[in-house]
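Sample entry (356 residues):
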Amino acid sequence: MGKKHRIGILGCGNIGTMHIMGIMESPDLEVGALCDILPNKLADRQRQCGASDDMCYSDYVEMLDSGKIDAVSICTPNALHFDMAMEVIKRGLPYALEKPPCSNEHQTAILLEETAKRNLLNMVCFSYRFKAAARYARDLILSGELGKIYHISAEYFQSWALPDQNGKLTELNWRFTKEMSVTGALGDLGSHMIDLCRFLTGSEFTRVAADLGTFVNKRPMLGGGPDADVTVDDYVNIVGQMEGPIAANLSITRFAYARGNYQRVEVYGDNGAIRYTLEENDALEVNIGNSPMRNNHVFIGVPIPKKYYKTQMQSFADILNGRSDGLPADIRDGWRAMRVVDGALASAVSGVHSNI
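Predicted structure, serialized as tokens:
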């Protein structure tokens, strides 16, 4: 066991809850401090991890300067990431940063430069890199089992933005506002799929074209009051090309009836194909190599070897302790993903493809 690192949590919402769970499960980490501007959220997370009152902050700069933490996990809404990460970097603290890393490529490039200057350990939380089936799929692809790769197709479908069975709409939380989320489905879900395409193939996007839009333009305000404008996208479809060349298609929505957190990624080569899926559990199906499987269009589920199981926060602990397996995303990966996000946004506005 390496050093036990004290982690400061910036943002005590749903994602902060998940990070705290991962920290508590790791023998190498502990919660050092908590910060949120909402007292009820802060109190909930305090109870979750048994933090003392002097570990709880409403001002994140005070938390960073408290001396109680060795690293930081940034779990706030997207528009806050850049300023908070810069303050963390200025203090020379390692960090885990939620996705999308910043509001745009330019901000992310600054974080990349400043992180590199200080040689800071870091992780960007593209959490689906920690699904065992995805890691196994990556090894199969990069080892050449599928041969030359021609196509990758990715879907990420959720349903939470749909009206419920009584027609009631989800209220206007921060994920529906450009001011706090910057983009909607594109940044929230699409950045995951962009990164997963890169992770699985080892290739970079070279151009993209995108269509995005909003299905429900007004939603009730939190706590009542008149309906307010939704200012981000509900869905995005991206077509593009990756190095290889590999043809890429991504379909992302918050309006997929009956879906909870559904993903499917299919990769096709000249000697095989794989299908990665996720809903409650992740799974991998393959059709590789032999004529009977190929000619009969048969995909077979395969068991995932134990070595591919790894959790996100334990992986952050391994980074801090100098024993990372090299598979978590870092701020350079975050920058590359943001280049594609920005390219998709530009294409949606201009109607032509964007070179990455």
